[in-house]
Amino acid sequence: MSGSWGPPARRWRSCGLLRRMDYQPAANGFSPTAHYVSGTTEVDGLVVPTRRRIHIRQEDRTPDLSWTPITLDLADVRIR
């Protein structure tokens, strides 16, 4: 989970799917954020991520894994 990150930064899995985004959203006072995307389902031919975990980043740009302020798990995804 370490590495050289410059906001906004993105890391990709070898299959081409997004794994992590780093950014500083205004909505939470510009706190440095590490946003992890995992789990997928296929819907109408599209691969949709089903699990997201958002952590505050520490000064060394690693996520603070002691607390997960935002979790999102999607199920029964439909595209209209």
**SSE run:** EEEEE
| Termini gap | 35 Å
- Structural class estimated from helices and strands: mainly beta
Helix content: under 10%
Molecular structure report:
- The chain is mainly β and 80 residues long.
- Helices cover 0% and strands 45% of the residues.
- The chain contains no helices and five strands.
- A five-stranded antiparallel sheet has the order 1-2-3-4-5, with no helix packed on it.
- Strand 3 and strand 4 form a beta hairpin.
- The termini are far apart.
- The N terminus is likely disordered.
What are the main properties of this structure?
5 strands, 45% strand, globular
Concise account of the structure shown:
The protein has strands at residues 9-12, 18-23, 33-43, 46-56, 70-73.
Topology diagram in text:
Elements: E1 9-12, E2 18-23, E3 33-43, E4 46-56, E5 70-73
Antiparallel strand pairs: 1-2, 2-3, 3-4, 4-5
